[in-house]
Amino acid sequence: MGQKRGLRKRQRGTKLLKFMSWIVNRIGDTDIPIPLAILQKCWAASKKNFTRLQKRSMKVRKVALHRDLKNIDSLEGFTNLQKVQMLFILSFPVNEAFENILKAEGHHIELIDSVRRISFFRSQDGTFERREPDHDVKPLDLNLLAGQIKYEDKEESDDDELMDEEEPLDWDEQEALDIKQELSFADNEQGAATGIKEEAKADFVEEFIPPDTMDCKPSSSDPVIPVYPSASTVSESLEVLRSSVMALRYPSMTKTLNLIEEALVTYGSNMNLVPMADITLNLPSIIYLAMKGDPTNKNEEQVNRKAYLQFLLQFVILLDSRALDEQQVALEWKIDETDDQARIRLEKVKNGLSILLIAITA
């Protein structure tokens, strides 16, 4: 029994190190703190087996991160600047030993006294700098995915490294889960519902390729849409859309990205909420287009279908609305069922984006 428990702990430790490496390698350029819950969701969305992500596993990982990063000065496998980046992104405290190491290396570091969180850091050579956002800026920038999260190949995600097994917790782990201060650390579950409050009433939607309505399933009657309060503003939704499109990393999407950028620059701050009912109504058509848009020849511009579905799943996750629960489940099933080599015409991707933009700015 003791050997099995030790093996489970070693396996969990390996998975935790892989998660920390993912933060450093995929989110390493981010210059604003991000709630841990959102990082875990985005990590899961970049994997093919998102449906197996367990809330308890997220809590276990959170406690383990808090424990390991308390003694970050002795953490192996990362450079000191990578450790600084992890502490900054997660808003974790800097212990005194690690602070002294950084100062001895010639780095400049300033901490918030009460919580020992990094308020300012500049590397010795001046090439790496991080600063705590102003108090009137929300702690989550929905650009966190922009150009940084890559959708992973099947070989990279088949090992189930994302998940912790549903096993009985050891006594110390269960005790840790019961300690509120351990669980509340970096636990801003509402982070996905916050951000820069801006209005983005885009008048450019007609410049996109119009939806190919001939490929959409006809509907005899409009479905009844449950009314849930929207979790995001129009501007936030456009930010999420921009970040998700950038994560697709297709050069042919440059014009689409430029149009989204123009809309975000043009329209000022506003508390208007996105019409979630319109997004809920249109997502089934977008998913249908994604599953039916097979290329007719090899010369057509194409996108990996699973990557596009993961893009849609990521968009739904970051909107963080109960109204999208059914769409999220549907996307998870589609991702599991889709062949890794399946392709979709780029035109269909643009059609889906056009529908999303119309829904967001309705």
Summarize the structure.
This protein is mainly α and 362 residues long. Helix content is 49%, strand content 6%.
Please give the order of strands in the largest beta sheet.
1-2-3
Estimate what percentage of residues fall within beta strands: 5-15%
Order of helices and strands: HHHHHEEEHHHHHHEHHEH
Q: Major beta sheet, specifics?
A: 3 strands, antiparallel
Question: What is the count of DSSP helices, taking H or I runs of 4+ residues?
Answer: 14
Judged by helices, strands and strand pairing, the structural class is: mainly alpha
Number of strand elements: 5
How far apart the termini lie comes to: 59 Å
Low-confidence spans: pLDDT under 50, at least 5 residues? Answer: 1-12, 48-53, 135-230
The value of Rg in angstroms is: 22 Å
Helical residue percent band: 40-55%
Mean pLDDT: 67
Inertia-based shape:
elongated
Q: What is the number of independent domains? A: 2
Q: Would you kindly provide a written description of the structure presented here, covering whatever features stand out?
A:
This protein folds into two domains: 2-191, no CATH class; 205-360, no CATH class. The strands form two sheets. A three-stranded antiparallel beta sheet has the order 1-2-3, covered by helices on one side. Strands 4-5 form a two-stranded antiparallel ribbon. The protein is mainly alpha-helical and 362 residues long. α2 (36-45) runs antiparallel to α12 (305-319) and α11 (276-292) runs antiparallel to α14 (346-360). Helix content is 49%, strand content 6%. The protein has 14 helices and five strands. This is SPK domain-containing protein. Residues 19-129 form the SPK domain.
